[in-house]
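USER: I would love a firmer grasp of how sequence relates to backbone shape in proteins. This is the protein in question:
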Amino acid sequence: MYQSEFTDFINRYLEQNPQVAAERLERRAVWWDKPVDATFEQGATEAKVKQNGYYYQGYVYSGAPKKKVDL
């Protein structure tokens, strides 16, 4: 199986420095491995604003005058 030079380098580096894997897990826990607050998640989901299918089209409000487009 082909492995790039970079993959070989990383594999050799991790073999020579096993503490890097442990440090990575510790640092990941600081930012990502957190308990989830279910009530906050529910509130955030309910507070989302619906987007149009095409992002750059802009919002269409009911009752607003229709734009005339000349091509």
Residues 18-48 form one domain. The chain has three helices and no strands.
